[in-house]
Each structure stands twice: as structure tokens, then as C-alpha cells.
Amino acid sequence: xxxxxxxxxxxxxxxxxxxxxxxxxxxxxxxxxxxxxxxxxxxxxxxxxxxxxxxxxxxxxxxxxxxxxxxxxxxxxxxxxxxxxxxxxxxxxxxxxxxxxxxxxxxxxxxxxxxxxxxxxxxxxxxxxxxxxxxxxxx
Length: 139
Ligand SMILES: [Fe+2]
Known about the structure:
The protein is an alpha+beta fold. It folds into 2 domains: 1-30; 33-138, Immunoglobulin-like (Sandwich), CATH 2.60.40. Helix content is 20%, strand content 36%. The protein has 3 helices and 7 strands, in the order αααβββββββ. The longest helix has 17 residues, at 3-19. It starts with a helix and ends with a strand. Bound molecules: fe (ii) ion.
């Protein structure tokens, strides 16, 4: 590759990185179904969707938005359990999380107050055996 083409391609790469939303980059690189799993892209865990996809209930009040996250997964001590729920904003930046103790928490249920946040949230549920599952909702 000559120097002029190298510079042109480098500039194109830099520009793409700036203007492409991260969501586009994530799906374009095949991360769903490989790095993390969704209802539509369960990858190697296609029989595990029901027990791992985080279900999200939204409620709004004068205090703001709050969500309840439920993963229909057993808590079988440290052998098999949901490690955490995590909430990310529209840009995949961290908002909050709840860690679970498999010896104390009987079910992976969490509640989060999101204040005045509005827009898309990404909710992750992490199993110690079946990896990370993503669900998305607009609040
Ligand atoms: Fe699991």
C-alpha cells in the first residue's frame, strides 16, 4: 500500500469511528449471539432464552422512572446463579448495577431508580454458566 492510500484509509477509519453509533458497530461486528446474547440472537444458548433474558418492568411517578428487572433463573448457590443485573444508557455507558449473593438472594430480582432519565436503556443479566444476556427498553 502506498503512502497516499494508507493516509486515505486511515482518515476513513477515523471518520467512521466518529460518526457511527456504537450500536451499529456492535451489530455489524457480530457481537450479538457471540459476546452477549439476546432473544433474537441466543447463539449457542438457544434453549436458554427463557431463563436468562432479563424482563424489565417500567414504572413512572412524580419521583421519576424506576424499573424492576427479573431474570427467571434459579439461584443454586455458587454452582449456577445470576451474578448481576446491570443497566447501561443509550450510549452503553454504565448507570447502575446490582450484584447477587447466591447464598442469600432467593431470586435474581432488582429495582433501580433512574431519576429523570429518558431514552433507551440496555439491561444485562449475567449467568455464571450461560454468559451475558441483553434486553433493551425505552423509558
Ligand atoms: Fe444459567
